[in-house]
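Deliverable D2.4 — example input (structure tokens):
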């Protein structure tokens, strides 16, 4: 017998749909206004971030699991790796870039100045996709569908266009997470929170699979002499 989802209206007039319980909980925890549309976008982000090949944090989880560490310890290994600024905090670095760009009248002026000090722009580039990160494309479009007045989102999109036109770099997932953070008026750094909650599912799957596979992951090193 099929049972339809129960819809309940709370004191705020918000109709809670059981289809997106984790997304709704996250919006509430981040003290953001809630709606079925917003929950749907957050849920999409959770699905897109759950796993992504054998990246650094997933590998850390598998190494721990291969040593017969507990599932909790394997997750701690993954979280420790994730906490690095080049991994889990990358979307926050993208937000900082947007904030700093506001000092310039145009994104072209900002980009010219930025490239004087750094070659790599946070939120751009990936070795896995020749035509750009499809996750970023989806999240950017989702952000645009729900908000077109947020000043930070507008500047972020201008940066995406400017960087694409002038140096040919395409946005990655971190740009997408920053875009929905702005569109949903979430606190700064919320992209990393969504990423961590979502990726926990992937870490657990990797750890369980590694324990079932068995065998110790033990990389070897070979001395190459002076470089």
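Example output (designed residues):
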């Amino acid at each position: 017998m099929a049972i339809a989802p129960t819809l309940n209206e709370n004191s705020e007039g918000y109709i809670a749909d059981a289809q997106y319980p984790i997304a709704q909980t996250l919006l509430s925890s981040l003290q953001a206004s809630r709606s079925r549309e917003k929950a749907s976008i957050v849920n999409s982000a959770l699905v897109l971030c759950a796993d992504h090949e054998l990246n650094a944090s997933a590998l850390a989880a598998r190494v721990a699991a291969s040593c017969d560490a507990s599932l909790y310890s394997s997750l701690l290994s993954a979280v420790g790796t994730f906490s690095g600024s080049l991994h889990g905090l990358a979307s926050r670095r993208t937000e900082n870039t947007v904030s700093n760009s506001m000092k310039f009248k145009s994104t072209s002026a900002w980009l010219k100045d930025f490239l004087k000090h750094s070659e790599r722009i946070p939120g751009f580039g990936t070795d896995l996709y020749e035509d750009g990160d499809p996750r970023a494309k989806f999240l950017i479009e989702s952000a645009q569908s729900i908000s077109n007045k947020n000043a930070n989102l507008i500047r972020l999109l201008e940066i995406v266009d400017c960087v694409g036109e002038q140096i040919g770099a395409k946005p990655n997932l971190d740009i997408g997470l920053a875009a929905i953070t702005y569109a949903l008026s979430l606190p700064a750094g919320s992209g990393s929170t969504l990423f961590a909650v979502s990726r926990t599912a992937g870490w657990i799957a990797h750890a369980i699979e590694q324990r079932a596979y068995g065998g110790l992951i033990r990389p070897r090193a070979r001395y190459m002499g002076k470089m």
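The CA atoms of residues 91 and 174 lie 4 Å apart.
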